[in-house]
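quick one, 451 residues, struct below
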Amino acid sequence: MAKTRTIYSCQSCGHTSHKWLGKCPDCGGWNSFVEEKVVEEKKSGRVRDNVESPQPISRLVMAEEDRVKTGIAELDRVLGGGLVPGSAVLIGGDPGIGKSTLLLQATGMLAESGVKVLYVTGEESMRQIRLRGERLKALSDGLLVYSETSVERIIDAIKEIKPGAIVIDSIQAVYTEAFESSPGSVSQIRESAARLIAHAKSFGAPVFLVGHVTKDGAIAGPKVLEHMVDTVLYFEGERGHAFRILRAVKNRYGSVMEIGVFEMKDKGLVEVSNPSEIFLAERPRDSSGSAVVSSLEGTRTILVEVQSLVCPTLFGMPRRTVVGVDYNKVILLAAVLEKKAGIALANHDIFIKVAGGMRLDEPAIDLGVLASMTSNFLDKPIDPSTVIFGEVGLAGEVRAISQVEPRVREASKLGFQRCILPKDNLKGLKKPGDMKLDGVSNIKEAIEKFF
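---
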């Protein structure tokens, strides 16, 4: 007979203990241990008959797998070109940001193309899914909706229907009878995801898992959940903006640098094929503190506006408020600007924001952020037809960056007439049209070129 034992599991990291602990020894969280009962089944001593012997990697036969297009180009871009049969995709994001909307649109298009899809909802009724499907125009006989939270019954449905794609919305809502803990606990999430992924892979069907996020923005549950799946996608965006950004943080079948840009409308999420035009549409002209930077997201070049506000502080400690850029990067650039260019920012508050809700992480935006701060400090506007990019070192030098040609080409296509870039990147660079290219080697030269 199966035996039941009691364990204590940390709800933050999944660490288990035989007794309750006030502080988790792994993640350091306080009062995060919850009592869980585990049903242990007697294991058989049989050895599998289909165990394969070790083989040289050069002799392994690689099967050609055709990717399945979802019908949403931005989603296919982030996935690496489409869905890989048997892959597991985890999508996380804030409540109401559009995870279920995107998946219902994608599965509706898959069903229209002839793929049988099983959409399992554990948080909504089937009537609610029908109402959303009417609004999104995702009504198809090939899209099967199943309102269930038991993993065992979901697996029975998968065996019976044998779908070509599966959606579990959400993984925190389902549970397995092997554990007596409540749905959403660490043990339930880990075991439920493992069983669903294993059965989906046995049928060669891609499976989407929707995951809730914590207040820190990470997917709720054990960190091992992100290791179990093949792809992890995060939906980003601010409630005050209609734009949503789908970013890959893990992808075994593609690049993790790709992003997909969507706009939320009354009829669902709409693809944004040219994000640069959208992000620069409301850019103020002849306003100090505004600079256009070029950021490379995977294979896509995006031009974004960086805004800065530099003003004398009224307190003993100046404030540094940053949105869309790394906070430590701004502190570093402010120190370089003061030391190497003589612009005193130690007694000034600095506020920096990336317009449109984008988040920029690559080194090429350093020179643009520095230009934005300098422009507002001196109250001199930068020519609105100028785009700026380059990496800034601690010695005040402007370092060369990668993929210069697509950045300059995108800026020329959008009507920019001047580009300030690292001097070393000018070697062998083809000038598109009549665009003027100004190369700089340090920040003093760059400041002279800004205005």
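Residues 186-202 form the longest helix (17 residues).
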